[in-house]
Inverse folding.
């Protein structure tokens, strides 16, 4: 039995509310169970120096957790003068995941920055950030297309992410914190809506895993991402 009482292949309740901030070109609040993340997308008519003049667009991301997003208060990273290694790793993951769903030629030479701020954490914050980040990105691109700044839709396919793991010896979908903290195997799966894999992060957290178990987790991940893509698209309905 899972701590939440969910079935092995059952996700937490997912909701995506769009247009939650006034100024950003795209924004949403995504809730995956008790993990809540505010995602905003900001458009700038410039690109990083290393691609300037190439005609290619760029999508990047920043990620952070608010001080009381967890059970005890954490210090803002700004007070220490630098980001922690976990933060840097996650925001790089979000950026490259979203870029995998973008035709950067069609995007034109501009940058969209997706900011993901964790309001409340209960496991799977990076997955929620990627999933919500794509919704914010979609909104920003829609706005650029509406005013004619982009002629051809540069978004190839939705991008979503889900966690899966081996908990109490069984493959489970969408780990919350109690499961994540005790999982023998923990994995994050990032896929496009067309089924193409972007990245898989898997590690043994106290127990090794077999090829068959990895296949079970992959099957669960595909199911979860399909449900998340449906929620992404429904957010625009």
């Amino acid at each position: 039995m899972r701590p939440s009482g969910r079935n092995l292949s059952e996700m937490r309740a997912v909701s995506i509310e769009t247009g939650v901030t006034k100024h950003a070109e795209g924004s949403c609040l995504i809730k995956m169970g008790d993990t809540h993340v505010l995602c905003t997308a900001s458009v700038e008519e410039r690109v990083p120096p290393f691609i300037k003049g190439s005609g290619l667009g760029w999508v990047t991301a920043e990620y952070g957790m608010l001080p009381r997003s967890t059970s005890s208060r954490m210090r803002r990273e700004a007070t220490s003068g630098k980001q922690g290694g976990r933060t840097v790793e996650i925001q790089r993951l979000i950026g490259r995941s979203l870029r995998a769903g973008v035709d950067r030629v069609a995007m034109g030479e501009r940058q969209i920055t997706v900011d993901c701020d964790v309001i409340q954490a209960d496991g799977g914050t990076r997955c929620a950030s990627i999933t919500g980040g794509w919704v914010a990105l979609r909104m920003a691109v829609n706005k650029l297309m509406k005013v004619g700044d982009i002629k051809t839709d540069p978004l190839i396919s939705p991008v979503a992410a889900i966690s899966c793991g081996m908990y109490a010896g069984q493959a489970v979908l969408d780990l919350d914190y109690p499961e994540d903290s005790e999982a023998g195997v923990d994995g994050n799966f990032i896929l496009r809506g067309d089924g193409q894999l972007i990245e898989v992060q898997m590690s043994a957290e106290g127990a090794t895993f077999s090829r068959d178990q990895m296949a079970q987790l992959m099957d669960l991940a595909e199911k979860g991402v399909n449900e998340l893509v449906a929620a992404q698209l429904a957010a625009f309905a």
